[in-house]
Design goal:
The chain is 21% helix and 29% strand. The chain is built from four helices and eight strands, in the order H-E-E-H-E-E-E-E-E-H-H-E. The strands form two sheets. Strands 1-2-3-6-7 form a five-stranded antiparallel beta sheet. A three-stranded antiparallel beta sheet has the order 4-5-8. The chain is globular, with a radius of gyration of 15 Å. The mean pLDDT is 93. The structure holds zinc ion (ZN). The site of zinc ion (ZN) has 5 residues, from helix 3.
Length: 173
């Protein structure tokens, strides 16, 4: 079910999110939360990923749109049918020393964009809904998304580290 997106100023965005416990894996409640995240993300214009605190749930979970994981474009006719991917208890296990400058926005800081320096490449380890561990290695946009979402789980917003942030009326994310 689609949920309202929490915006900057709400305390939940500044809390360190709680790990998902062993007994929560495989439950209907966890699956329902992943569905809520996906439903909320899919109606957000320009949304590519969302972290649980952004719908007011302080748990270590984020969801990335399937078409991003599959490196497809949003307007690709098949994009909507690609399943979104949930990362539970995610950790960055490797990060490149090579950095890259990204233009970033956030669903929880509407109308604001900024330039931020992040690792060009990261490897994220996480668990799926059943508790099974997996690893994803990513560079560029997907690496940026992983770092942005894991920051959310630490209570960090991109505007905290942006070199420059500017407001624009053009796009809402
Ligand atoms: Zn964000």
């Amino acid at each position: 079910m689609e949920k309202p997106i929490v915006t900057d100023g709400d305390a939940v965005l500044r809390d360190k999110a709680q790990p998902v416990s062993e007994k929560e894996f495989g439950t209907d409640e966890l699956q329902a939360l992943l569905t809520d995240l996906s439903d909320t993300l899919r109606v957000a214009p320009n949304g590519v990923a969302i972290a649980a605190p952004q719908i007011g749930v302080s748990k270590q979970i984020f969801v990335v749109r399937g078409f991003i994981m599959a490196e497809r474009m949003r307007h690709d006719p098949e994009s909507d049918s690609i399943t979104d991917v949930a990362f539970i208890n995610p950790k960055i296990v490797r990060a490149s020393r090579k950095k890259e400058r990204f233009d970033e926005g956030c669903l929880s800081v509407p109308g604001v964009y900024g330039t931020i320096v992040r690792s060009h490449q990261v490897t994220v380890q996480a668990q799926d809904v059943t508790g099974t561990s997996f690893e994803v290695n990513a560079a560029g946009l997907l690496a940026e998304i992983f770092q942005h979402e894991i920051d959310h789980l630490e209570g960090v917003l991109f505007i905290d580290n942006a070199e420059e942030a500017y407001k624009t009326e053009n796009h809402e994310t």
